[in-house]
Design brief:
- The structure is a single chain.
- This protein is mainly alpha-helical.
- The protein has one domain (2-49).
- Helix content is 51%, strand content 0%.
- The protein has helices at 2-23, 29-38.
- The longest helix is centred in the N-terminal third of the chain and has 22 residues, at 2-23.
- The chain crosses the membrane at residues 6-27.
- Keywords: Membrane, Transmembrane, Transmembrane helix.
Amino acid sequence: MRVNVFIPLGVGVLLAAILMNFSYGSLSDKEIEIEARKLGMIYPEEIKVNINSNENNGGEIND
C-alpha cells in the first residue's frame, strides 16, 4: 500500500522540479544588475565618504 502512494508522489516531485528548472530563463549580466539595483545594490565607488571628518562630531566639520 505504501509503494502505491510514494511512487506517484516521487514522480510528481520530479516533474515539478523539471518544470521549475525550465521555467526560469537565464538572465544576462545586465538584467541581473538591473534587478539587483532595484533591490538596493550599490557599488563601492558610488559611496561618498568625507575623509576629513572628525569622529567626535559625527562627520560634521565645525569652524
